[in-house]
């Protein structure tokens, strides 16, 4: 399978791109190089390779949740720029 100038023009039209003749030629060559590389990968023997979604095993690196005491409200409000009724007051986001 190879990409032709007509294919490049069609994709450029779909993407609403105006390409010069030189750009069309350049993209055709680049896309054909990609396809040639993909065809080379088809030569590999993958009979004993298990299908995976990731090349490395994925493990959860998150720690377990541990229940512990919260900070006292007074200590939390010490760093608040403004406080009202035991809550941190922030500027309105919506009008």
TrEMBL record:
<dbReference type="GO" id="GO:0050566">
    <property type="term" value="F:asparaginyl-tRNA synthase (glutamine-hydrolyzing) activity"/>
</dbReference>
<comment type="similarity">
    <text>Belongs to the GatC family.</text>
</comment>
<dbReference type="InterPro" id="IPR036113">
    <property type="entry name" value="Asp/Glu-ADT_sf_sub_c"/>
</dbReference>
<keyword id="KW-0067">ATP-binding</keyword>
<comment type="function">
    <text>Allows the formation of correctly charged Asn-tRNA(Asn) or Gln-tRNA(Gln) through the transamidation of misacylated Asp-tRNA(Asn) or Glu-tRNA(Gln) in organisms which lack either or both of asparaginyl-tRNA or glutaminyl-tRNA synthetases. The reaction takes place in the presence of glutamine and ATP through an activated phospho-Asp-tRNA(Asn) or phospho-Glu-tRNA(Gln).</text>
</comment>
<comment type="subunit">
    <text>Heterotrimer of A, B and C subunits.</text>
</comment>
<dbReference type="GO" id="GO:0070681">
    <property type="term" value="P:glutaminyl-tRNAGln biosynthesis via transamidation"/>
</dbReference>
<dbReference type="GO" id="GO:0006412">
    <property type="term" value="P:translation"/>
</dbReference>
<keyword id="KW-0547">Nucleotide-binding</keyword>
<dbReference type="InterPro" id="IPR003837">
    <property type="entry name" value="GatC"/>
</dbReference>
<dbReference type="Pfam" id="PF02686">
    <property type="entry name" value="GatC"/>
</dbReference>
<protein>
    <recommendedName>
        <fullName>Aspartyl/glutamyl-tRNA(Asn/Gln) amidotransferase subunit C</fullName>
        <ecNumber>6.3.5.-</ecNumber>
    </recommendedName>
</protein>
<keyword id="KW-0648">Protein biosynthesis</keyword>
<keyword id="KW-0436">Ligase</keyword>
<keyword id="KW-0808">Transferase</keyword>
<dbReference type="GO" id="GO:0006450">
    <property type="term" value="P:regulation of translational fidelity"/>
</dbReference>
<dbReference type="GO" id="GO:0050567">
    <property type="term" value="F:glutaminyl-tRNA synthase (glutamine-hydrolyzing) activity"/>
</dbReference>
<dbReference type="GO" id="GO:0016740">
    <property type="term" value="F:transferase activity"/>
</dbReference>
<dbReference type="GO" id="GO:0005524">
    <property type="term" value="F:ATP binding"/>
</dbReference>
